[in-house]
Design a protein that fits this description.
binds flavin-adenine dinucleotide, alpha+beta, six-stranded antiparallel barrel, FAD/NAD(P)-binding domain, 13 helices
Amino acid sequence: MSRRIAVVGGGAAGMAAAVHAARAGAKVEIYERNDRVGRKILSTGNGRCNFSNEKMDSGCYHGSGLKLIEQIYQNYGVTETKAFFEGLGMRIKDRGGYLYPASGQASTVLDVLRYELEQLSVTIHTQRKVIAVVPLRNGKDAGTDDGATSPKGRIRIETADHTKRDYDAVILACGGKAAPNSGSDGNGYILAEKLGHRIVPVVPALTALHCKETFFRRVSGVRCDADLTLYIDGRETVSDRGELQWTEYGISGIPVFQLSRDAAYALRKKRSVSVRIDLMPDLPKDAGNGEADAFWNPRWERQSGQTMEQFVTGLVNKKLGLLLLKLAGIGESEKVCDVTDSRRKELTNLFRSLIVSVKGTNSFEQAQVSAGGVDCREVTPQLESSLAPGVYFAGEILDVDGICGGYNLQWAWSSGFTAGRAAAKQAVERP
Ligand SMILES: Cc1cc2nc3c(=O)[nH]c(=O)nc-3n(C[C@H](O)[C@H](O)[C@H](O)COP(=O)(O)OP(=O)(O)OC[C@H]3O[C@@H](n4cnc5c(N)ncnc54)[C@H](O)[C@@H]3O)c2cc1C
């Protein structure tokens, strides 16, 4: 008789786990609190679903499980993920290493997964929130709703409508806390905590930063290429370059997302957080050899008869140029030749090194992922709980978060495969 596995959470990781467990011969049931599975997948990659990335290594991830990720990706990484989706009939579009369904529709990823679940006769219970996961430690725990006996080693799950069922293995794939309207509101951490797991503090990641300065309204809506460096207590930490988006409250866009988890943890510890913005990242940095002067001096000379508004025009977005003039205390209508060397220096420094003070991140509602979660040191390389054998974890519920670019979904596919296969194998092998 095939063994029964329950997957709690029908997101990317839960569906992947269910497919692989069923392919390995287990009888699988998914419990999903929403009225449908995979809601979050639909909003990924701006509706196009950046489901993986050709450039993949553990350096693209954070959390307590970097070694674990390496082990897991050796068995099931990008190559296997591409083969998996192609095997389900999905053509793939490679955009400079960023992988998408060729249809341009995130719904394709969800559809092919749903069809495969149907093909494999996986039962999907929607609108069924799991509220307890209990390993049965002795043979006396009878009384499930399906009348099954409950030998030692099985795992009981209880849903909000008070049904109880026992399984040979349970895979927790409840997601993290990001985008809670899609169903992942952090309740999975509570289920894990009740099993004795430590939860690494959870913060919003891949999200925008709120800043203290009051000038953001003047430049809200501007997008520009920039190089960003995060400073924590004055110490340089991470950097990233890309399209910076200026908002009413601060800064957003992919390079900001990449810095946000470190900023969030630092703010949580009440550290001082700031970002240095280089608005002219293509220009050589001034290493004291006059590289910057070679750019600026001819400009000061050539435009000496013009106004400072004219001087900044064409360097960066106009609104940003005017903002920098204001921050340097230089009037727009001042003549270039009247600006002293020290004020010139102050202005040119601002183009290369505008410092903004960070006071917060966007909330979980606007974050793409959450950093933190179930401590990876408490799971085996097969993603089985070392505290509650028979319980497995997959996806964002674990303390793993990737950078922007398909890395978080790749973790969902790889961890789903690992947990699904191992749970099915364990369930079949366990006497
Ligand atoms: C706007 C947005 C865009 C993104 N874009 C990308 C992208 O392009 N590329 C990328 O790699 N990543 C992207 N991500 C991140 C990626 O979507 C997630 O990391 C990934 O979906 C996590 O998968 P998961 O299965 O672990 O969790 P989730 O997708 O959150 O799924 C968890 C599921 O569990 C259900 N659930 C929770 N608790 C219970 C319970 N107690 N009982 C029953 N069901 C429960 C939830 O309803 C949910 O369906 C994006 C995220 C967002 C929010």
